[in-house]
Structure formats: structure tokens, C-alpha cells
Amino acid sequence: MADSLRIGIAGLGTVGSSLVRILQQRSKELAITCGRAIEIIAVSARDRSRDRGLDLAGITWFDTPEDMAKKAEIDVFVELVGGASGAAEKAVRAALARGIHVVTANKALLAKHGVELAVMAEEKGALLNFEAAVAGGIPIIKALRESLTGNHVSRIYGIMNGTCNYILTKMEKEGLSFEACLKEAQRLGYAEADPAFDIEGNDTAHKLAILTTLAFGSKISADDIYLEGISNITIEDIQAASDLGYRIKLLGVAHVTESGIEQRVHPTMVPLDSVIAQVDGVTNAVAVESDILGELLMVGPGAGGNATASAVLGDIADIAKSRPGVQQVPVLGRPAKSLSEYRRAKMKSHEGGYFIRLTVKDKAGVFASIATRMAENNISLESIVQHSRVHTEGGPQTIILVTHATMEDAIRKAVKAIKSEKYLVNEPQVIRIERT
């Protein structure tokens, strides 16, 4: 059997602690599977005195991740610290500079520095694996980087944030407000004390940017993503969607057009009978559309200690099975220096159309005015109906519009014109419809 693979783990939070336990409990099984033992010889975390329920006897402790990356006699540096810059970035760069393989679950780091780090790794002959950075336990990175080689991917989309999916699911199933569901998600540990990064779509955007690069061979461009979160979704939207045959999900969507690549993250109405509409709770799902395979949908746990640790362990095992001198798979699916410049697609009609909810004063001429403003912007309506489960005579009315394919800019102009008429009671709601 080959010499053991020596690893150092930076970060002993939920994921890091789970990884240590799995490696220790299944050491014999992993040695047989990988053809060599996997040995933890170094760790780094902020608090040495904290009781994590781990046996760290005989393992060298380093005060900082960077110190471990620079000095530890390791073959693999496992980064579970998090953050786009700071300690995580410095440590990963230090490890790669020594030619040490890196495994990371850090989507923020990759979204900001991924191409540069990939170049470093390839120049040093080191591996940079990051399966856990996107969709937790779903092996979507390996699928795009290896299994779908030869396929031309045209579109990739999915549910990539368990916090948002949990909130939207609970709103629908229990009829609770967004605020109430967010509080419950925080109580259960699904949402952070400051949940903005999740609920405003940033987490999904980072993951989508990484998948876009793997799918289409362009440089990572997280700043070119249209971004919209779920904090303005109401129970009225959830109920109206259900009545129309849809369910609301926060989707990340990227696809290739003749003019470039379109990337967007936003709440989306998907048909109730679609597979992705059935993905509930903290579960994630990613769909890939390609010319040879057709459509591939992968569903699984998107977060949590064991799910993420499983993906990290898979990356470590791949390194353990690799052999010196054998050509490795490029970090981002193709050599980093050959990635094309990102070209943002020109605006075009959204094929699925739009859902628009308007709460208006109960007065004559409102329907006609709304229809006129839509027509002025060349928006074709599939339906326009008064929609109210409880309607008080003389009180505000809810009007629901569903459009055919149209331009985003046209929708915004029409809504702005409607707002100028002064019969709206509150802000309009606009949600894309995705014909999955």
C-alpha cells in the first residue's frame, strides 16, 4: 500500500468536526477504498479550549490556517474557514505556493478568486477540489468537470440555497408569513442571525457563478448576475401561485444565448407538476441541459455538517487515489488560462412570461388603465383577473396579471406607468415564470 495521505484541516466548526469524526471512524474502510491511509496530522481553529467531542491526540495544532499551510508537513490542505478574503485566501494561496493540494468548501472565495487560484494550482501541479462549495452533498462539480465531458451544456438551473427553500416551503405548507418562517429557520439553525447573505440571493449567486464557469468555459463573473432575493415574497404571492398552478422557488439560472451568457438569481414560479417544484425544505436541486445527455436533475441535501463533510471527503479520496505524473482534470473543467472572457448576454424576452400582483383601490376604470399600460409597452397578457380570497366591498382589490413572453424592461416601464396613476395601495410584485 502507498504511503498515507497526510492532511491538515483548517476550521473545526460543524463541517470540520464532522469530517474529523468520519475520517477517524472509517479509517480502515477508506484505506482499502483509496489504496492508502488518510491521516490527519494537523488542525487549526480559533479556540483551542473548546470541547468539540473530538479525539485530537497526536495531531499538531496551529494557531492560524496560514501558519499551518506554510509549515505543516501535509499533502492536502482542507480549508473550512470560509470568507472571500482574509485568513482563508491567505492560507489557500500559501498551500498552493508550496504545491500542496487544496480541498475547500468556500464558494465565496472561489467566486472572487477562483480563476487566479486555479492558475496557481495548475502551474504548481496541485489539485484544487471544491465539490462541497456548491449544493452540499450533490456531486454537481464532478458531473460538470468530468462526467459530462463532450456534452455542450446550454442551460443550468436549480435550487441552491436550503435556507430560502425551507422558508418558501414552510410559507406554503403552513400559511405563515415570511418573517415568521425566517424566525423558525433561525431557531432551527438553518438561517444565520444575520440572514441577508442567504435570503437576498448572494449565496446562490456565488454558487451559480462557479457552475456557469464549469458549464460554459468562461471566467467566473459573480458580479454579472441579476440578483433578487425572497424577502419581499408574501403569503398572498404563495397562494396566488398555487391557484394558478405554480410554486415559488428561489432559482439560480444560467444559459447560453447567441449574444453571450445570461445569469440570474430570483424568485421564480415553476409548474406544480414539475420535478423541481417537489423539492422541499432544505433540499437542493440542480438541473443541467445538454445536447448529448438531454436533461440531468440531481437532488440532495444542500447543507449541514454530514452532507458537506461527505463532499469534502469525496474530494480528499479523489486526491488519495490520484498518482504523481498522471494528468489531472483541470480545476475548472479546462485549463484556467484557456477560459474565455465572460460576455454578458443582451436583454431578450423572457420566454416564461411574468406574474404581476397589484393591490389597487376599488374604483372604476382600474382594469382598463392597467390593460392600456400593458398594451402601450407591447406586453401581451395571458390573463388578467381580480384575485382576492377575502374581499371587502369598497376595500382594496388584488389584481393578478400573467403575461406571455416579454422583455424585462417593458415590464418595468409598464409597472412604473401604473404606479404613476395613484390607484395602487402598495408596491407591485413581479415574479418570473419558468417553464421548466
TrEMBL record:
L-homoserine binds at residue 192. The active site is at 207 (proton donor). GO terms for molecular function: homoserine dehydrogenase activity; NADP binding. It is an enzyme of class 1 (oxidoreductase). Its EC number is 1.1.1.3. NADP(+) binds at residues 10-17. Coiled coil: none annotated. It comes from the Bacteria. GO terms for biological process: methionine biosynthetic process; threonine biosynthetic process. Pathway: Amino-acid biosynthesis; L-methionine biosynthesis via de novo pathway; L-homoserine from L-aspartate: step 3/3; Amino-acid biosynthesis; L-threonine biosynthesis; L-threonine from L-aspartate: step 3/5. The keyword Ribonucleoprotein does not apply. This is Homoserine dehydrogenase.
